[in-house]
Write a structure and sequence with these properties.
It is a single chain. Helix content is about 70%, strand content about 0%. By secondary structure, it is mainly alpha-helical. The chain has three domains: about 425 residues, Sodium/glucose cotransporter (Up-down Bundle); about 90 residues, no CATH class; about 35 residues. Helix 6 packs antiparallel against helix 7, helix 8 packs across helix 12 and helix 8 packs across helix 14. The radius of gyration is 25 Å and the shape is globular.
Amino acid sequence: MALDIPGLVVMAVFYMVILATGIWASMRSRKEEKKCIGDGMEITLLAGRNINLLVGIFTLTATWVGGGFILGIAEATYNPTLGAVWALMPVPYVLTFFLGGFFFAKPMRENKYVTMMDPFQQKYGNVLSSALIFPALVADVLWVARTLVSLGGTMSVILDLPYVYSIIISSVVAMVYTLLGGLYSVAYTDVIQLILIFVSLWVCVPFLLTNPHSLDISLTAYNETFQAPWVGTVELDEAGKWFDDFMLLALGGLAYQAFYQRILSASSYTQAQVTCFASSAVCLVLGIPSVLVGAVAASTDWNSTAYGLPTPYENNQAGSILPIALQYLTPAYISVIGIGAVAAAVMSSMDSALLSSASLFSSNIYKNIFRKQASDNEMQWVIRISVVVVGLAGTGLTFLDNSVLVFWLVGVDMSYTIMFPQLVCVLFSKVSNGYGASVGYILAFVLRVLSGEPLIGLPPAIRFPGCRLDKEGKLTQFFPFRTTIMITSLLSILLVSWLTSIIFNKGLLSDKWDVFDIKRKQIKTARATDIKTDHTSEESSQGKQLLDTTSC
């Protein structure tokens, strides 16, 4: 197969448009910085908390609809051991956005936090918060890796462009415009990218559905033809694993900094809610084309195509089924359009992960711990360096594995089992303290490691009920063990926090043993609550008097 020159030209034009949009947005960012002297870091990380509603919907949706989303859904639908019922991403994300809008948006936005980790630092202090930031940063690096893997595989299949070049070019472009304009660049490029994703995918679908090498997908949905039915099944003994995967995707996303970056950039709590609810519907629609691609691939007689036998699944190329289907089942010019969709999706997620990790490091570690007196200019450089470091780390990981689902699930796994229970407790529990958070963190980490992970070849030391070999011969936990670990961590945080609070408040142990100084912090929190209540009451009273005067 020769290098596809026309395809490369199209991709070069796409990258130039994205880069130009990022540069334009960076110029707007600089104008905002001049208007708001001293708020440069907030302009870079949160766009001055003044993101337009429509742009907010685009950027939140584009963050979730990444390369992993598009290729992962197609991979699961095509995989004969899984099927569409295991292509869970779109539906759990609806739950993610609704829960985020109803419960998490208000405390985060009304307290005007800069990052997801701010409430941790305020409640637990810097030392413990630094440890809690680690899994969030690792999840972002894995996010970068999984998005780049999806694009590298697509370009190498369709354009015959070497995998290494595809990865490096895409990584550099995303890092450049993220460095230039921060969230402004990320948000406005997301608008272009999401439009391209939507149009490109739906343009490709009719050509795939009408290609001569595939049977009608309605006939292969429940009947075995060239492989098992593409709808797939969830056997009774697999129900626990299905439920576990669903909850992992639904709740794991609520512990990502990228989600709160969009919430906190909204001009108000109400706008943040509307952004979440609208994005959930768009996510659902954008998942449909990938399911159709996987269904068509599962309904194809690959021996009658130029691909031949063995099939992509037998060649261990299920992770690249979307570009393979575009390459062999559609005209050349349509396959190039499909690359545009994947490239746009990759960019839209990668830049979010880069800025997310840069936010955590610059604001919560560098600014709050090492250099509290750091100037605005210094913080801008810290953000830029953070973007580059995370970009390089994520790019390096892409050469270790070529499955999109591996990076996707391992990254979200850490967010779900370790970070989600911590976030729930710090936002909604008055009793939680540093002791409970520490025990919950260690317990979740140890239990998760001991439970094993077949995706990375880690054997389970703890075998939950139903642990057995899966259809691919890997020892797998079919019990909802990750949800069990999450709940165990949540309960341990609350229980240990309650016990230690009693121990120190009742003087059962001397205050000198109170490492996390919870007694003083509880008194300080209570006073702050009283002051806030008094202030709110005073404002209400003044408002009532003003209303009475106006009425008279």
